[in-house]
Design a protein that fits this description.
Radius of gyration: 15 Å
Largest sheet: 5 strands, parallel
Structural class: alpha/beta
Helix content: 25-40%
Shape: globular
Strand order of the largest sheet: 3-2-1-4-5
Mean pLDDT: 89
Order of helices and strands: EHHEHEHEHEH
Low-confidence stretches: none
Amino acid sequence: MTDSDKLPLAVFDLDNTLADTAHRQRFLERSPRDWDGFFAAAPEDPPIPEGIALVLKSAEECEIVYLTGRPERCRQDTLAWLAAQGLPEGRVHMRRNDDRRPARRTKLEILKRLARTREIRILVDDDELVCEDARRAGFTVVRASWTAPSATLEVAQEREGRT
């Protein structure tokens, strides 16, 4: 076991935690929702300074893990965005392309799996339901409340299982 295997984990969501999705909400406001357009615009997300600062501070004592509801098909764009922001490398857990379960279920499942072998020092996520369920399960949670809540994105996360 290496020293990095002993570090606690700091787990960060991406959308509206580290990446500001406001500019691409328009793709979800039409009917039918344009999911391809929504995810294709993700590389243009501006970074959220509060989230970026918290990742960098957490990296001083923790291994960083990214936990997103984005589908696996967005992996290359996501890795490029993280690198472009100068964020620490870390494992990126993404939703299977065909997984439509609510974000709170998929994320909690992954958190519990990670917690079997490592201490999770903190989870940072903007989704209120993800945060509530993680707290109930015993995790330390910081709710990323530094962007305006989006009812459209909440529906996408919880009812449509898309992000």
